[in-house]
Amino acid sequence: MTRNKILSIVEGDGDVEALPILLRRLLFEVKERFEFHIDQPKNAHGCNNLTKFKGIERFLELCRADSSCAAILVLVDTDENCAKDLALDLAARARLLGLQIPIAIVCATCEYEAWFLASLETTANQSIKGRDGLTKDAKYEGEVENKRGVKEWLTQYMPLGRTYRDRTFAYLTPRPTLQYLERGRKTHLEVPSPCNGEGI
Fold this sequence. Notes:
By secondary structure, the protein is of the alpha/beta class. Helix content is about 40%, strand content about 15%. It has a domain of about 130 residues: Rossmann fold, CATH 3.40.50. The protein is built from 9 helices and 8 strands. Strand 4, helix 4 and strand 5 form a beta-alpha-beta unit. The protein starts with a strand and ends in a 10-residue tail after the last strand.
Protein backbone atom coordinates (compact mmCIF):
# COMPACT_ATOMS: atom_id res chain seq x y z
CA MET A 1 0.00 0.00 0.00
CA THR A 2 1.24 3.49 -0.85
CA ARG A 3 2.30 5.56 2.13
CA ASN A 4 0.79 8.94 1.28
CA LYS A 5 -1.09 9.91 4.44
CA ILE A 6 0.10 12.50 6.95
CA LEU A 7 -1.34 11.75 10.36
CA SER A 8 -1.41 14.26 13.20
CA ILE A 9 -1.99 14.30 16.94
CA VAL A 10 -3.44 17.40 18.61
CA GLU A 11 -4.77 18.34 22.03
CA GLY A 12 -8.09 20.06 21.37
CA ASP A 13 -11.24 20.30 19.27
CA GLY A 14 -10.21 23.58 17.61
CA ASP A 15 -6.95 22.04 16.44
CA VAL A 16 -8.82 19.11 14.92
CA GLU A 17 -10.69 21.58 12.72
CA ALA A 18 -7.89 24.01 11.91
CA LEU A 19 -4.73 21.94 11.53
CA PRO A 20 -5.76 19.99 8.39
CA ILE A 21 -6.53 23.30 6.67
CA LEU A 22 -3.14 24.77 7.60
CA LEU A 23 -1.32 21.59 6.57
CA ARG A 24 -3.04 21.47 3.18
CA ARG A 25 -2.20 25.12 2.58
CA LEU A 26 1.42 24.62 3.62
CA LEU A 27 1.80 21.57 1.40
CA PHE A 28 -0.14 22.81 -1.62
CA GLU A 29 0.49 26.58 -1.62
CA VAL A 30 4.00 26.79 -0.17
CA LYS A 31 5.66 23.42 -0.81
CA GLU A 32 3.64 22.49 -3.93
CA ARG A 33 3.41 18.90 -2.76
CA PHE A 34 0.15 17.40 -3.96
CA GLU A 35 0.76 13.71 -3.45
CA PHE A 36 -0.12 13.62 0.25
CA HIS A 37 -3.46 13.08 1.95
CA ILE A 38 -4.12 14.94 5.22
CA ASP A 39 -6.12 12.76 7.59
CA GLN A 40 -8.29 14.05 10.44
CA PRO A 41 -6.11 14.60 13.52
CA LYS A 42 -6.31 12.33 16.53
CA ASN A 43 -7.55 14.37 19.49
CA ALA A 44 -5.69 13.74 22.76
CA HIS A 45 -8.11 16.03 24.65
CA GLY A 46 -5.38 17.84 26.53
CA CYS A 47 -1.60 17.99 26.54
CA ASN A 48 -1.54 16.06 29.79
CA ASN A 49 -2.83 13.00 27.94
CA LEU A 50 0.31 13.14 25.81
CA THR A 51 2.85 13.92 28.50
CA LYS A 52 1.57 11.35 30.98
CA PHE A 53 3.08 7.85 31.24
CA LYS A 54 2.58 6.00 27.93
CA GLY A 55 0.51 8.93 26.65
CA ILE A 56 2.19 10.02 23.43
CA GLU A 57 3.35 6.45 22.89
CA ARG A 58 -0.23 5.19 22.65
CA PHE A 59 -1.19 7.79 20.05
CA LEU A 60 1.94 7.15 17.99
CA GLU A 61 1.23 3.42 18.00
CA LEU A 62 -2.27 4.15 16.70
CA CYS A 63 -0.69 6.05 13.82
CA ARG A 64 1.75 3.24 13.11
CA ALA A 65 -1.18 0.84 12.76
CA ASP A 66 -2.25 2.75 9.63
CA SER A 67 -0.29 1.12 6.80
CA SER A 68 -0.67 4.22 4.60
CA CYS A 69 0.98 6.55 7.16
CA ALA A 70 3.85 8.49 5.55
CA ALA A 71 4.60 10.89 8.42
CA ILE A 72 3.29 11.96 11.82
CA LEU A 73 2.92 15.50 13.18
CA VAL A 74 2.34 16.18 16.88
CA LEU A 75 1.08 19.70 17.69
CA VAL A 76 0.63 20.94 21.26
CA ASP A 77 0.46 24.24 23.13
CA THR A 78 3.19 24.74 25.72
CA ASP A 79 1.21 27.10 27.96
CA GLU A 80 3.50 27.73 30.95
CA ASN A 81 6.10 25.14 29.91
CA CYS A 82 9.31 25.65 27.95
CA ALA A 83 8.57 24.85 24.31
CA LYS A 84 12.05 23.49 23.63
CA ASP A 85 12.15 21.23 26.69
CA LEU A 86 8.67 19.84 26.04
CA ALA A 87 9.37 19.18 22.37
CA LEU A 88 12.70 17.47 23.05
CA ASP A 89 11.16 15.31 25.78
CA LEU A 90 8.32 14.14 23.54
CA ALA A 91 10.73 13.57 20.65
CA ALA A 92 13.02 11.45 22.84
CA ARG A 93 10.07 9.28 23.87
CA ALA A 94 9.00 8.93 20.25
CA ARG A 95 12.48 7.77 19.20
CA LEU A 96 12.37 4.92 21.71
CA LEU A 97 9.44 3.41 19.79
CA GLY A 98 11.55 2.96 16.65
CA LEU A 99 8.58 3.58 14.38
CA GLN A 100 10.65 4.04 11.19
CA ILE A 101 8.24 6.81 10.20
CA PRO A 102 9.20 10.52 10.08
CA ILE A 103 7.82 12.26 13.16
CA ALA A 104 7.78 16.00 13.88
CA ILE A 105 6.99 17.44 17.31
CA VAL A 106 5.71 21.03 17.13
CA CYS A 107 5.21 22.99 20.35
CA ALA A 108 3.44 26.33 19.96
CA THR A 109 4.65 29.07 22.31
CA CYS A 110 2.43 29.64 24.31
CA GLU A 111 -0.68 28.89 22.25
CA TYR A 112 -1.33 27.68 18.72
CA GLU A 113 -3.68 30.65 18.24
CA ALA A 114 -0.80 33.07 18.79
CA TRP A 115 0.39 32.29 15.25
CA PHE A 116 -2.56 34.27 13.93
CA LEU A 117 -1.57 37.38 15.89
CA ALA A 118 1.51 37.63 13.66
CA SER A 119 -0.67 38.26 10.60
CA LEU A 120 -3.40 40.56 11.90
CA GLU A 121 -2.47 43.28 9.43
CA THR A 122 -3.53 40.97 6.59
CA THR A 123 -6.53 39.26 8.20
CA ALA A 124 -8.23 42.27 9.83
CA ASN A 125 -11.17 43.80 7.96
CA GLN A 126 -11.58 40.72 5.75
CA SER A 127 -14.90 39.01 5.22
CA ILE A 128 -15.23 35.41 6.37
CA LYS A 129 -17.48 33.36 4.13
CA GLY A 130 -19.48 36.44 3.24
CA ARG A 131 -19.70 37.76 6.80
CA ASP A 132 -17.70 40.42 8.60
CA GLY A 133 -14.56 39.12 10.29
CA LEU A 134 -12.08 40.91 12.52
CA THR A 135 -12.64 44.65 12.77
CA LYS A 136 -10.14 46.85 10.95
CA ASP A 137 -8.73 48.21 14.22
CA ALA A 138 -7.56 44.76 15.36
CA LYS A 139 -3.89 45.18 16.18
CA TYR A 140 -1.52 43.46 18.59
CA GLU A 141 1.79 45.11 19.40
CA GLY A 142 3.09 42.82 22.14
CA GLU A 143 5.28 39.72 21.87
CA VAL A 144 2.97 37.11 20.37
CA GLU A 145 4.72 34.14 21.94
CA ASN A 146 4.01 35.49 25.41
CA LYS A 147 0.30 36.14 24.87
CA ARG A 148 -2.19 33.97 26.76
CA GLY A 149 -5.93 33.87 26.15
CA VAL A 150 -5.58 34.60 22.43
CA LYS A 151 -9.02 33.23 21.56
CA GLU A 152 -10.65 35.63 23.98
CA TRP A 153 -8.52 38.51 22.72
CA LEU A 154 -9.48 37.85 19.09
CA THR A 155 -13.15 37.52 20.00
CA GLN A 156 -13.07 41.13 21.27
CA TYR A 157 -12.41 42.23 17.70
CA MET A 158 -15.10 40.11 16.09
CA PRO A 159 -18.51 41.61 15.23
CA LEU A 160 -21.05 41.59 18.06
CA GLY A 161 -22.39 38.10 18.66
CA ARG A 162 -19.56 36.28 16.88
CA THR A 163 -16.61 34.43 18.40
CA TYR A 164 -13.19 33.38 17.20
CA ARG A 165 -12.84 29.95 15.58
CA ASP A 166 -9.54 28.26 14.67
CA ARG A 167 -10.99 26.85 11.46
CA THR A 168 -11.89 30.28 10.12
CA PHE A 169 -8.45 31.76 10.72
CA ALA A 170 -6.75 28.77 9.15
CA TYR A 171 -8.54 29.69 5.92
CA LEU A 172 -7.57 33.35 6.27
CA THR A 173 -3.88 32.81 7.09
CA PRO A 174 -2.01 34.58 4.26
CA ARG A 175 0.76 33.01 2.21
CA PRO A 176 3.57 35.08 3.82
CA THR A 177 2.56 33.81 7.26
CA LEU A 178 2.40 30.24 5.96
CA GLN A 179 5.97 30.62 4.73
CA TYR A 180 6.91 32.09 8.11
CA LEU A 181 5.48 29.04 9.87
CA GLU A 182 7.02 26.65 7.35
CA ARG A 183 10.49 27.97 8.24
CA GLY A 184 9.81 27.15 11.89
CA ARG A 185 10.70 30.58 13.29
CA LYS A 186 11.60 30.31 16.99
CA THR A 187 9.40 33.23 17.97
CA HIS A 188 6.40 31.04 17.30
CA LEU A 189 7.40 27.44 17.71
CA GLU A 190 10.16 24.97 18.36
CA VAL A 191 10.55 22.15 15.85
CA PRO A 192 13.13 19.49 16.67
CA SER A 193 14.35 17.33 13.80
CA PRO A 194 12.08 14.44 12.83
CA CYS A 195 12.68 11.39 14.98
CA ASN A 196 13.22 9.12 11.98
CA GLY A 197 14.06 9.95 8.39
CA GLU A 198 13.67 13.35 6.80
CA GLY A 199 10.88 15.85 7.20
CA ILE A 200 8.43 16.53 4.42
